[in-house]
Amino acid sequence: MSSAQATPQLGAWCGEFGREYTMRSCLTPEQVDALWGKNYGITRTELNRRFLGSSATDARILEVGCNIGNQLSLLQRFGYSNLYGVDVQDYALEIARSRLNNVNFAQASSFSLPYEDKYFDLVFTSGVLIHISPNDLPAALDEIHRCAKSYIWGSEYYASGETEINYRGHDELLWKMDYAREYWRVLPIWTWCWSSDSLTWRTKTSTRCSCCEKLHKPRNRRDRHCREVQHENQRHHPGSIGEHSLAR
Predict the structure, then answer these.
(1) Contacts for 83 with CB less than 8 Å, ≥ 6 apart
(2) DSSP class of residue 26?
(3) For site-directed labelling of 108, which of 43, 88, 90, 131 has its Cα 20 to 30 A away?
(4) Full-prediction pTM beyond 0.90?
(5) Which of helix, strand or coil describes residue 85?
(6) Domain limits of the chain?
(7) Does residue 206 carry a pLDDT above 50?
(8) Over 70: is that where the pLDDT of 176 sits?
């Protein structure tokens, strides 16, 4: 990492602290699904089906902060064939490359992704933004947005306001907040919808609504119906977006 990209958090994840996390994270796809099912009542495979089921399997997809590739492995099993992953930790990438064939891995941080503008159909994170300092977060969100042509998807710990959590005895390594609203603050031109699965789903040109699981343009008749349903869901379940993430 260059000095311009260096942060205390990146230093921790590139070092022994990050290596220990990687060793804890060596799970099979079945174990990942079992963990999600136990913690959230839905497997990650089922979540992928709900959000990505109608997407082309040759869509170009990037995971930022892929670690050893647990999420990419599930997508590969689902039939996606054009997958990319970046992580800051070389040890994690070494394991990822040994586990997954035909996935493009690179060592990089969310602050400097080595790809052209709008290179990916979808860019996603899963429990990664929570480890970026709130002061540095806008730069990461902007870089993710730069590389995304159509969609950004996220699964992060939720809190209505910025909340720092002591993580395994360390301060300044984990935060909870409303990451959907942080995206909205940085990227106000993007449309977005509430999800009953408590995950962020954003797009410049269309929205996949949890109530109908369809892609549609903003402001059409179906969109108005879905927004009404989303508003009603939010009224009964306030703060339900961006809440779930794999236990870390």
Answers:
(1) 61, 63, 72, 75, 76, 102, 103, 104
(2) -
(3) 43
(4) no
(5) strand
(6) 3-190
(7) no
(8) yes
The DSSP symbol for 124 reads E
Query: Which parts of the chain are beta strand (E)?
Result: 61-64, 83-87, 103-107, 120-126, 148-155, 163-164, 175-176, 191-192, 200-203, 207-208, 215-216
The pLDDT of residue 188? 64
Looking at residue 192, its pLDDT comes to 52
The tens digit of pLDDT for each residue in 11-67 reads 999 999 999 999 999 999 999 999 999 988 999 999 999 888 888 999 999 999 999
The CB-side HSE value for 150 (13 A sphere, CA atoms) comes to: 15
Which candidate, 97, 99, 160, 165, places its Cα nearest to that of 131?
165
Residue with structure tokens 């060592």? 107
Which CATH number does 3-190 carry? 3.40.50.150
Burial class (CB in 10 A: 0-12, 13-18, 19+), 169: exposed
What is the gyration radius of the CA atoms in the chain, in angstroms?
Answer: 17
Buried residues in 122-157 as b, exposed as e (16+ CB within 10 A): bbbbbbbbbbbeeebbebbbebbbebbbbbbbbbbb
Burial class (CB in 10 A: 0-12, 13-18, 19+), 248: middle
Q: pLDDT by residue (tens digit) across 116-133?
A: 999 999 999 999 999 999
